[in-house]
Amino acid sequence: MGTSRRRWTSVLLVALVLSGGLSMTAAAHSVVRAGDARYTAAAMDSSAGDVTAAVAHAATDYGSVLSDLAYSLASQTDLYRNDFLRITAGLTNVRLHGATRIGYVVPATSAQIPDVQRRWRGYGADGLTPRPAAGTDVHSFVIYDKVFDGHPNQQGVDLAGNPAAAEVLRHARNRRALAISPAFQPALDNETATGSRRTFVMLAAPVFSFADSADAFRGWAVMMLRTQDFLAQTLLDRGANAVQARVVDPAAGLELASVAPGRRATGTALDRRHELTVGGRRWQISMTPTTRLVSDASGGLSGLTLASGAALTVMLAAMTGILAGSRGRALDQVDRATTALRLDIARRQQIEAQLREREQELQHLAFHDPLTGLANRLLFYDRLTHALHTHAREGRTFAVLFIDLDGFKEINDRHGHQAGDTVLRTVADRLREGLRVADTVARFGGDEYAIILESLTGADDARVAAERVIAEVQAPIALKDGTAVGVSASVGIAVNQPGASADDIIRDADTAMYTAKTAGKNRFAF
To answer: In this entry, which stretches build a coiled coil (predicted)?
Structure first.
């Protein structure tokens, strides 16, 4: 009976821990989830505000450029074509992304057309032929047209024939300020399918002469913008690629630009719609968050709270069950924990051994040539510097041999790089085996080797070593396909002198090597 009671007591304790822990987890999850929703909404509000401000800023920047251009044009008493080209020289579609053309437009009545043609041709608008739109006596002719996108020049076109262009010109003149046209899709656009025609707007800035008179108005500076190119990157950048955005001209019923990065977040009330007025036009921006924005804003804290709370509850319940169990189960748990700890220690020791092995490999790679296993330039220079100090202090002699393989290039060209590698490794093995343990053999790159011969009795020792090197190198070398090839060695010898530096000795050995090569190869020189 006592055993049964203890068993039921253990079950009841576990059930209480589970019930209490899960209840607290659910409450914490609810609170954190509400906080996540607030943070996400605030992040979306911030992104939407940034996107809207960026669109307004972009339109304002382009408007400022056009207004400055209008001011510059107004400062010209007689606006020659060369003046227009000079003033607009710095305006490109690299600086003005999305701009397709910039032009100068003048007003005229039908009766004034001949005078307009004669006057502006005289200012350099060669070939200007005004083409008046039908059905109106008031015209707006393009005099100068700087095209960015390769479309035909519109010199002489009457913008009065384009309702959107006519409206923005009239609006800019009446307001005496920059104006933006309704969105429109040109009938002559390269993409004529209904769903693929591109949307444009025109910016117009009035040009008034500085004279205070009734005829002070002279024309307009205009800029054509392809709105998708103009706004798309701004929408992506300011939305941090986490907001899908669409800009429309509601009055014109046309989409100006849209971007749809990532995957749209569903089941949220985070969609935002802002309106802004630029150049007298009202634009509308619709923004929708992506799963990235929701994830970044919330940080997955609610899910983490739920998972960690549930995990902690299960852990506490398991611990309660273990503590309420028999002594034998507790001891078994201790044994299992001890075994796991030992395995972890063994695993750590294994990992540490592997790390030490990798460190040794990296150190070897840092100071040795990967093809031949010989010392590289860095290790050679270090040992040469050490030899200079020790031999100078003790008054001993050492020598440096520079070796260049004769005929290696022909083998490499004829038999391929694998054959060349075989030759380089074979020569390296012969040099290493033919020298003392205290001597240093290094590969300097390509088919050049260098040797430090330490503790010599005199220069004759270096001579003997050079003769041995020449003899060993010129022995035939068998390639993998059985072909026997041969190379010879030109050896330069430099013996340490008082006051000489490592660079001096290397330079002397290199010079001597080239002397040997010039003298006929397969020999040595001091």
So the answer is: none
Going by C-alpha positions, the residue among 428, 441, 470 that lies closest to residue 420 is: 428
Provide the 8-state DSSP code for 177.
S
Question: Which value, to the nearest 10 degrees, does the dihedral of the CA atoms of residues 303, 305, 309, 315 take?
Answer: 80
Placement of tokens 């040009």 in the chain: 207
Residue 325 lies in a domain: no
Q: Spell out the SS3 assignment of 189-224.
A: CCCCCCCCCCCEEEEEEEEECCCCCCCCEEEEEEEE
Which residues are CB-neighbours of 195 under 8 A, at least 6 positions away? none
In single-letter form, the type of residue at position 357 comes to E
* Tokens (6 digits) for 200: 């444009």
Give the Cα separation of 526 and 497 in Å (integer): 13
Residue with tokens 């005004």: 130
Q: Are residues 355 and 443 in the same domain?
A: no
Answer for the pair 367, 383: CB distance below 8 angstroms, yes or no.
no
493 forms bridges with which residues in the sheet? Answer: 401
Query: Which CATH number belongs to the domain containing residue 56 in this structure?
Result: 3.30.450.350
Cα gap 245→265, rounded to integer Å:
13
Q: What is the pLDDT of residues 273-331, one digit of tens each?
A: 999 999 889 999 999 998 887 777 665 555 566 677 677 767 876 776 676 665 545 54
What DSSP element (H or E) covers 401? strand 397-406
User: Which two three-digit tokens encode residue 453?
Assistant: 């011969």
> Do residues 131 and 157 touch, judged by C-beta distance below 8 A?
yes
Cβ pair 69, 88 in contact under 8 A = yes
Distance CA 191, CA 197 (A): 5
> Does a structural domain hold residue 112?
yes
pLDDT at 191: 45
343 and 458, same domain (yes or no): no
